[in-house]
Amino acid sequence: MGMANKGLRLAAVGAVTALALAACGGGSSSSSDSSASGGAGSGEPTKGGTIYYLTNAEQFDQIDPQRIYTGEDLAFFNGTIYRTLTAYKFSADAAEGTSLVPDLATDTGTVADGGKTWSFTLVDGATFQDGAPITCADVAYGVSRTFATDVITGGPTYAISMLDIPTAEDGSSAYKGPYTGEGQELFDKAVTCSADGKTVTFHLNKPVPDFNYTTTLLSFSPVPKAADTGEKYGDAPVASGPYLIESNKNGKGGKMVLARNPKWDPASDTYRGAFPDNWEVDYGIDPKVIDQRTMTSSGNDSFAINNGIEPEQLAVVFKSPTEANPEYNGRAISTLDPYVRYFAINTQKVPNLKIRQAIAVALDREALRKNAGGDFSGDYADGVIKPNMGQDFAPTGMWDTLLGQKIPDTGDPEYAKKLIAESGEAAPTITFDYPQSPTADKAAAIVVDSLGKAGITAKPNPIEPGQYYGVVFDPEKAHELINAGWGPDWPNASTIIPELFTPTGGFNLSQYDNPEYNKAVDAAKVELDRAKQAKMWQDLNTQAMADVVVVPTRFGREQRMAGKQVGPIYLWPAYGSWPYGQMYAGQ
Amino acid sequence: MTDLSPAPRRAYIEVEDLSVQFPTEDGLVRAVDGVTFSIDKGQTIAIVGESGSGKSVTAQAIMGLVNARTADVTGHVWVDGQDIVGMTDDELRKMRGSTMAMIFQDPMSSLHPFYRIGAQLTEAVNVHNKVSKKEARDRAIEMLQKVGIPSPEKRIEDYPHQFSGGMRQRVMIAMALINSPSLLIADEPTTALDVTVQAQIMELILELQQEYNTAVVLITHDLGIVADAADQVAVMYGARVVESGVIDDIFYKPEMPYTLGLLASVPRLNQVRADRLDPIPGNPPSPIRLPSGCVFNPRCVYKDRVEGDLCATERPALLPTDLGHMVRCHMSKEDREAVATIALGTLGRETA
Amino acid sequence: MSAYVVRRVISMILLLLLLTFVVFILFSLLPTDPARLTCGKSCTPEIIEANRHRLGLDLPVLQQYWEYLKGIFVGRVYAQDSPDPVVCSAPCLGYSFKRGEEVFILIKEGFPATFWLALGAFVMWLAAGISVGVYAALHRGKWQDKTVMGISLAGYSLPSFFLGLMAIFFIVIRLQLLPYPSYISPFENPTQFLQTMILPWIVLAILYAAFYMRLTRNQMLEVLGEDYIRTARAKGLPERIVIRKHALRAGLTPIVTAAGLDLAGLLGGAIITESIFSLPGIGSLAVNSVNDADLPLIVGITLVTATFIIVANLIVDLLYAVIDPRVRLA
Amino acid sequence: MSTSVAPSALPVVPDEDEEITGRSLRQIVWSRLRRDKTAMVCLVILILLYLIAIFAPFITSMLGVDPYSFDGESISDSGGGPIGAWGGISSEHPLGVEWGTGRDILAQLLYGLRISLLIATTATILTTFLGTTLGIISGYAGGKTDAIIGRTMDLILAFPFLLIILALSGVLTQRLTQLGVPDGNPSRILYLIIVLSIFGWPYLARIVRGQVLSVREREFVEAAVAMGAGRPRILFKEILPNLWAPILVYATLTLPTYIGTEAALSFLGIGVLPPDTSFGGMLGNSVSYFSVVPSYLFIPGTVLVILVVTFNLVGDAVRDALDPRAGRV
What is the predicted pLDDT for the residue at A35? Predict the structure, then answer.
């Protein structure tokens, strides 16, 4: 059900505060597009030193492994303090960088029963920070926490939807998590341990061919039962990776310091480099300051990394959307991120297809893109699956054919008027929900203006960023047009299409409920032939665009930068993040 | 100051052609315009007039309290042979509080609310005398005793708000006289007080005047007080002295129509047919726009006794009419006496 | 005197109670549902209901208020009947589930930055405002006075955020005289602390000083026109003693007390200045709490800030009674 | 204060109402104002600003600009920044264009002026009304009524008003909409006017209350009471006319304060909805860009400061004219 969270987090960026470390979800990126322009990656990694992670956020959204759901945070914590059964390979290459490698498990899992049973055997010598060996029980306990939905909030809920545990009458799982213990026996049947405690087996309610991708999520990482403090576990989590949290103080001026975990045995972990002695996350720094410090790269700032560049500096750092200026060559990245930006159209409130088409046709996508930063902000989108998704992507032809004729990027108000006339309805008045920020306010102005040219009255409805999704997910409060963004959890459109366009999806802002479409989605989900499945996703993507469930505006591009002495410099396709587990300070 | 030959002065205080002008945005304010009078030690001169007539500014000019930076002071104020006008700030300051002292109208606001009265009294001693704390304190207690404050050694620790109005004025008098000044200026010293207290305070002032042989300049609009206390009177109107002389001249042989009006407006116990007072018609002039000619002419009911429009065009001079009796009026002496007879006669009072 | 103190303290406590009540009611009536906000994406009505119960939001408003009041003194445990209760120790001003922290602790963490900001600005503006104000009063009507009044008018006509942004633009970006502000405790790194605080201090001090110049000047002019000042001059006191001992004492008392109230107001957070200079104070916390719709935090900050002002009112009044003997009998 | 050495305290002015008979206080104040050159210049500027605000749509169309049209040509395709120096100043866009949209800054300023003046002026009127009414009632009624109004004022003044205004904006704006105020800007502007007034009236009410306390003891009020005049009549016919000087002074000095506060609130994000803009909103936008395009900061900032300074100068002059003792010589 859950989903990569950038949509959520993105909402907060640019507002006065961005609480979570702004970030990414999964997804691959074609390396040809990435401008990790050589250089930095070539240096030999050195051990020791500290890497400084500069951020405007004032705290991590979550530190509790079962609650983390922000791409960048998943990558960061997975690379430093939490181990998972499986993980993505560190590589800039799109295919390689999203391929699986074993981490806590000895291999990437054994499938049986036509995809309904998955087993993982734990490596020898893996321990928690207190020296206790990590056992199957710890993994099972970690997974079980996800079921305590009243305590462990915010994290992915794949365990609940996939594990073979019956549901109660109200549709929720019959297992209520380890704190109440209600239905514990049901969970114990679904997740079993071998006698030696070395092998964990997951029994699923239906075949999941890519279940071992799911287990890369931190919600499948081990938690020692004795140390679990429920809601407050994130305050003092137990590390299983090469680092532990030495101190953490949230807020402006605060920082999180990671120090080496003395009990971590490199022999048990071939996945992580664990080069620097320390990590320091500096919270609450003004984005302008982050830019300036990273650009200058003097003193400790030569070991700094950031995860975003302010629009005003883009033209300073980059020659073009794909190439950095010589001065910053080798330490600045501009590449497609995993996200698609779009406006969801509430199909319950705008049931007439012609009207939805008119809205899509009238929107001035060029102005919107310019406002977001022009070509630095990304390419025009024609669907919700991005080119960097690999085989699941195919052009939908949305702006060429799907709407009846070719639609220019600036919109076609005359044609939109015609579509309204054909709709048999009067030109509508709609409200545009968006999380408030200065840039978003300007985008809203563009929406109002361009729809207005087609006779559609649009009213902007700015919502405080922290409350945004709370409002738009409430069917009572959501309006006709809803600003959104989405990135997949792993490189399979199964983490996009069902989430966005079916009633059981977690991100169905359009409130789209088309029985035929739902059926086709269910079929695609369980299709074991990956190539066939890819074709199905492509068709479903095109179909949704033809039905104008959303108006895709941009395939997002992002820019980030590091100090002169940090490596390697590339955007890790797995999470659209830095390859934290492989990074080093000094070369 | 280069006064080469100070002529021998007959009087201790000699005010000569004193003028005070304030330039303001609304125009030049003539607060005092050519005031002249004189008195000796132990004597009292009362300056009477309506509010705004310039009497208070005259008093402040004598004390040197008119700020030279904001006002234009001309003429002479001779105090014991020294001209106040033109003195440096410091010379003036040294005279204030020692040679000359002042009592103000409102004892409620004239004492600093934050300091004990003892501190305020000893401060006055210390500024002019090098004495010990104890001596200053003793002197303060002695003065409080003199002005009739009971148990002064205790009250000296009190704050002004703990005293009644009359008591505060006594404190003010004590403070004024603590350095035995030879000139005391009392600016409406009883106006703000209860009627019963007024007499006591005046009595106290006169009593202490005897003791210290002080020259007193009494500013007031209360002719009753004048009659009891003053030796000489100067009547001011529109920034000028319009009539001056010894008390009997002013009360019984007034010659200026304004003085007549002033006297007529005072209720008297011996006044038989006093069914209504006789106020002067009209309002006092604005100091910004003093009437040309005689300042009183717009309100003067007798100006037709003067030929032509002399009253409105030419400023009358302050001229002696008798020995020591000066009048500023265009009417002839005969007319003035005739007018006075009529005016005082209507009051049912016999002429002297 | 002591009866006066008791009376004042009692009326202050009543006002504080009234204040907590008004704030509580005001925010209880908001349609924003705190229970919904604590719920993640996978939200069902059951979870919201459970959260509502955990937060005690299912109780009648008056009882919630009582629980809240009680919590301030004896602490509070949320979700007592659940296996995972949240303890909020006294003084409990609520618990921010959004941040997973007690409101009191969040405010306490924000306090140092706000405190230093307010204190430094306070010292600067009082020093500048009073000295310049007195100077202007003594040169009343002269060019010095007119200049001061002009500067003062310009000063309080500048919106704080414009002044702050200009300071950053010129001092930090263009002339690079100072690094970008980045707050640190003065005990940890005094140099960086001063480098960070100097601009916000100046910006805040200019705004207040402009106002206090006028206030001081007018107050001094009023006092200089008082009869007792004339009395002091008539005594023959040198002008500087008249000014320092007699005029300043009376003239500055109301100014210093007014400044006390302003200081208290600032201790509740200078929202705009803190936002512009990235200071991790109560003002920034307040803006964040609004953006996140973090109701317990908003309520907590409102209460703490208002309490500062009310308590400062009391202190100032009592202090006034000490300084001005006339008040003592009241 | 009785007579003193300070020249302004001389019996110059108090005599005036007796001396210059036949001239009302209003005429006197006006004649004083007319002599104050700065005030007259400012007054003219203010009238011009109001005219500009009222006729903003005509002016912008005459200049060939408007605040809503996007000009993709004037901004770069990479980054969205304006093409040309100083925010893209050109003959087409005299003050440059907005980052990311190419909207005209001059036109936005003129429209921002409209909103700023609308909110500040209306809020000042409402504040003055509330403060005067409640101040008179409080001062005249005394007793319980006075105590209740007094406590309410204490309470309001103790509130951190910026925080409250920010926190309640969303909800109360919705309330207003539910009450029938048109959705969008009308509700938002009304909300600002109302909250500014609610947090502003106690200051004036305190002044008015004090005045009422002194005025109600005066003879003419006692006379009116003796003649059996009704309470409203006494309050508004006898007492109110004696209060207009402090009220006018307060109102003229409140207006610029409200302009500044409104700008601060829109800077913090509580303002008019896009596509409309306000001074505070423009300055808020400038934060992201002003290290590269300083004119985004300085143009609206300067206009805002001029506006506030002009109002303050007029306010000062009015106060001086009404009560020369309080102001300059």
Answer: 39
Count of CB atoms within 10 A of residue C210's CB?
24
CB contact under 8 Å between A253 and C290, yes or no, is: no
Q: Say if CB A237 and CB A63 are below 8 A apart.
A: yes
CATH number, domain with residue C163: 1.10.3720.10
**Banded model confidence at residue A11, pLDDT cuts 50, 70, 90:** very low
Q: pLDDT tens digits, residue range D152-199?
A: 888 888 888 888 888 888 778 878 888 888 878 888 899 999 999 999
Q: Which of A74, A126, A79 is nearest to A105 (CA)?
A: A126
Residue identified by tokens 């629009």 is: A311
* Cis peptide upstream of residue A568 (ω within 30 degrees of 0): yes
Residue A12: predicted pLDDT: 27
Same domain, C276 and C260: yes
For chain D, list the domains and their CATH numbers.
Answer: 108-322 (1.10.3720.10)
Quickly state the pLDDT bin for A25 (edges 50, 70, 90): very low
Does residue C180 share a domain with residue C262? yes
Identify the closest residue of chain A to C294 by CA–CA distance: A466
D18 touches chain B (CB under 8 A): yes
- C235 vs B94: CB contact, 8 Å cut-off? no
Interface residue B284 vs chain D (CB under 8 A): yes
Any C CB within 8 A of A157 CB: yes
Task: Note the pLDDT of residue A137.
Answer: 94
Question: In chain B, which residues fall in CATH 3.40.50.300?
Answer: 13-235
List phi, psi (to 5°) of A458: -115, 135
- Look at residue B319 in the predicted model and tell me its pLDDT: 85
DSSP state of D7: G
Asked which of C69, C103, C137 is the last residue of a domain, the reply is C103
C251 and C183 assigned to the same domain: yes
Q: Mark whether C62 and C139 lie in a shared domain.
A: no
* Count of helices and strands (H, E) across chain A: 16, 21
Contacts of A349 (CB under 8 A, 6+ apart): A430, A479, A480
Q: What is the pLDDT of residues B332-344, one digit of tens each?
A: 888 888 888 877 7
pLDDT of residue D93: 85
Q: What percent of chain B has pLDDT over 70?
A: 90
Q: Does B26 touch chain D (CB under 8 A)?
A: yes
| C171 and C52 in a common domain | no
Same domain, C197 and C70: no
Q: 10 Å Cβ neighbour count for D203? A: 18
The 3-state DSSP class for residue D275 equals: coil
Whether D9 shows a pLDDT value over 70: the answer reads no
Residue B167 has pLDDT above 50, yes or no: yes
Which A residues 196-255 touch C at CB under 8 Å? 230-232, 234-235, 250-254
pTM: 0.80
Residue A430 reports pLDDT greater than 90:
yes
Inspect the structure and tell me whether chains A and B have 3 or more CB pairs less than 8 Å apart. no
C-alpha pair distances (Å), B162 with each of B165, B172, C329: 10, 14, 10
The residue type of B100 is M
3-state class of B149 per DSSP?
A: coil
The model's confidence at residue A553, banded by pLDDT at 50, 70 and 90, is very high
CB-based burial of residue D27 (10 Å sphere; 0-12 exposed, 13-18 middle, 19+ buried)?
exposed
| ipTM for the complex shown | 0.77
* Architecture per CATH, B13-235: 3-Layer(aba) Sandwich (3.40)
Verify that C245 and C185 share a domain, yes or no: yes
Question: How many domains does the structure of chain C reveal?
Answer: 2
Residue where a domain stops, chosen among C103, C129, C162: C103
Expressed as residue numbers, the domain containing C53 is: 2-103
CA distance A140 to chain C (A): 20
The distance of D286 to chain C (nearest Cα, Å) reads 9
Q: Compare CB distances from B112 to C239, C246, C253 and report the shortest one's residue.
A: C246
